[in-house]
Amino acid sequence: MSSHESSYEPKSATAKWWDERLPLPRLMYDQFVEFPTPRNLNYLWTFGGILTFCLVAQIVTGIVLAMHYVPSGTDAFDSVDRIRRDVNYGWLIQPMHAVGASMFFLAAYIHTFRGLYYGSYRAPREILWILGVFILLAMMATAFMGYSLPWGQMSFWAVTVITNLFSSLDQIIPGFGTSIVEWLWGGYAVSGVTLTRFYSLHYLLPFVIFGLVILHVWALHVCGQNNPTGIEIKTKSDSLPMYPYAVSKDIFGLFVFVIIFAWFLLFLPDYLGHADNFVKADPLVTPPHIVPEWYFLPFYAILRAIPDKLGGVIAMFASIAILAFVPWLDRSPVRSTKYRPIYKWFFWLFVFTCLALGYLGAKPAEGVYVFWARIFTLYYFAHFLIVMPILGSMETPKSLPGSISEAVLGKGSKSTTSSAPAGAPIGAPAAPEDR
Amino acid sequence: MNIKHALSPLCGVLVGIASLGLAANANAAGEAIHIDRHEWNYGGIKGQFDPVQLRRGFQVYQEVCAACHGLERVRFRNLVEPGGPQFDEEAVKALAADWPNQIIDGPNDEGEMFERPPKLSDPLKGPYRNQQEARAAQNGAYPPDLSLITRARGVHNDSPWYLHVPQMALDILSGYQEGGSDYLYALLTGYKEPPEGFELSEGMSYNKYFPGHQIAMAQPIPDEGAVEYQENAGATSSMKQNAEDVTAFLAWSADPSLNQRKQLGWSALIYLLITTLLLYFAKKRIWARVKH
Ligand code: HEM
């Protein structure tokens, strides 16, 4: 697992005893104390730690909620209300979990855009990146099922709308989609039966995410971290040990994040949710606007932008799946957008596109909103399928600094700053043995 | 080869489409009902419920709304607790014993269900046993339980698209979460003569703020006010005052931990800010050892 020599020396007899049997302390020391981190990491690199915090917070609050929650079509809504009113500190723990889910996505999206900006998906980090995409998918599934649990109007109707999407598979094999939908529902309609299976899976999936996170961190510690220059660590002076340097920065970043979390939790617990979910689920009353939670809005906009139901479903899933192919779609000789004067603009256009799709996802699918949703959906995919490969191979990147140390310390003369020979990958995918 | 040049026509087209969309957007935004924001003393990041106001609000609920609406997620004992109206416990016991709507309990030793007056631990029952009975009594309309009503309604951010994000930022920074209260207040004070040509169905009333403008609830608080406040109630009764007070009371019933939550918010924030600052200096010191 290690990408550097272990310098761990057990200090006590017990530590030595352990080290010879199960070198867990050594693993922790090598991977989280001595581990070399690029010395030029900025605050966008604190989000990995923040995400770990979010996952643990969701699991801890979730386990407490599960002690009081009643997964049944008739009692779920009332049980969540009782948690808020009657369970000790339930008024704090329940919104902590609900607001926590939003914060989790906020952090995950920032983390992902960080990766896109600095080219963290490029070789040799493809597997690391793809594991991240899987984590995002699993988070989405978890949050979708979690959102069904309070069994309010929006819970019920979101489940109805989203599970119904699978019926579009009937367009491919008649009857196939319908069977899937009935299988998901556990019957011929969304009911308490659907709720209990979603509850079971909502309890399971976070632990799957936990497993994926371990693999993600493993892959990270094999390849090492990327950094704002996108140049690999070449010499020892390019890096600093994780403890105390990166750690002190991570903890500070985490606390800033927790302040924002606390602001929403304690002053605005309802702001990120939807009022309709304070009305008990009623299969006979359809809310005028069925809208998912904010973190699904861009994908919801893409779904509704396509006039054909099956096409919409495919586009929605493709909009996430396409992320997995980014390592091969980006043809630029450099990793970091910092050195890509033209792509930079397209990157921010892409960020704007995602925000605009989020805005449109919350609007009714009619008139001008549909028109714009289509334009932005088009760009969403064009960014990956056209801009990334074509611009990547056409653009002339700015010249890279010779090394991380040089970028940070300005050490050495400009003359060592090679503008790479044409065709040769400048500092980008460096072979592991370079380090 | 200059990509920047090749791009400029594309940018032109995009700007063109954008302005087109802007114009069309302005047309599409017609129908939303605008609801004014009201000053709530429990609003924003500092607001707290005023027990005196909540007591007035409870009086309005009891004398007016309870005729049709239940408040079944609230228990009598909650009326005594801190952060709420904080009535005297003895007064609430008496109130419960006199509550017009009985609790169905049982079975007793003979195996029969029976009715009894509520105790402190019982909910504030409404007049109807179930939705069907309510609809039968109310011409087919259903007066919902009001326990969660201010959280179950909201107002939309109806700013134009280019002000959407600034408005959002403003709401987040000011801690605006009183959309439900704003709606309820607007609803209770929004009974008007229907405009010329408006077709009002039998038994319905015109309300400026109810979606569709036809509501099956007749104006619950008349223009001159509905209740007599006591001498020491801190306000004189009027339609607007009654509406404001009952809204505050229902906001409490939907979110009874608001006071406690915001108090914790302030302590947590102060603690976090200090710790974060210390962490920042610690980080600075650690990094001062190396060039960066
Ligand atoms: C990946 C981590 C998780 C995410 C993203 C997540 C997300 C969510 C969401 C969005 C809700 C709906 C909250 C609301 O709107 O009120 C929810 C509810 C719930 N979750 Fe989770 N959850 C996670 C982990 C867990 C775990 C590990 C457990 C149990 C061990 C759990 C148990 C519950 C329960 C009991 C509810 C229903 C109560 C409520 O609505 O607050 N969750 N979850």
- N-to-C CA distance of chain A: 15 Å
- Report strand % of chain A: under 5%
- For the report, how would you describe the main beta sheet of chain A? 2 strands, antiparallel
Instruction: Give the name of the CATH superfamily of the domain at 25-155 and 201-223 and 241-279 in chain A.
Output: Cytochrome Bc1 Complex, Chain C
Order of helices and strands of chain A: HHEHHHHHHHEHHHHHHH
Q: Helical segment tally of chain B?
A: 9
Describe this structure in words.
The complex is a heterodimer of chains A (435) and B (292). Chain A is mostly helical and 435 residues long. Mean pLDDT of chain A is 93; it is low at 413-435. Chain A has helices at 13-21, 24-32, 47-68, 76-86, 90-118, 126-148, 153-165, 176-185, 192-223, 242-267, 297-305, 309-321, 326-329, 343-361, 367-394, 404-409; strands spanning 36-38, 239-241. Chain A has a domain at 25-155 and 201-223 and 241-279: Cytochrome Bc1 Complex, Chain C (Up-down Bundle), CATH 1.20.810.10. Chain A contains 16 helices and two strands. Helices cover 60% and strands 1% of the residues of chain A. The longest helix of chain B is centred in the C-terminal third of the chain and has 31 residues, at 258-288. In chain B, the strands form three sheets. A two-stranded antiparallel ribbon of chain B has the order 1-4. The model of chain B is unreliable at 1-30 (pLDDT under 50). Chain B has 292 residues and is mainly α. In chain B, α2 crosses α8 (239-254) and α7 (179-188) packs antiparallel against α8. Chain B has one domain: Cytochrome c-like domain (Cytochrome Bc1 Complex, Chain D, domain 2, Orthogonal Bundle). Chain B is 45% helix and 6% strand. Chains A and B meet through α4, α10 and α15 of A and α1, α6 and α9 of B. Bound molecules: protoporphyrin IX containing FE (HEM). Protoporphyrin IX containing FE binds next to α3, α5, α6 and α9 of chain A.
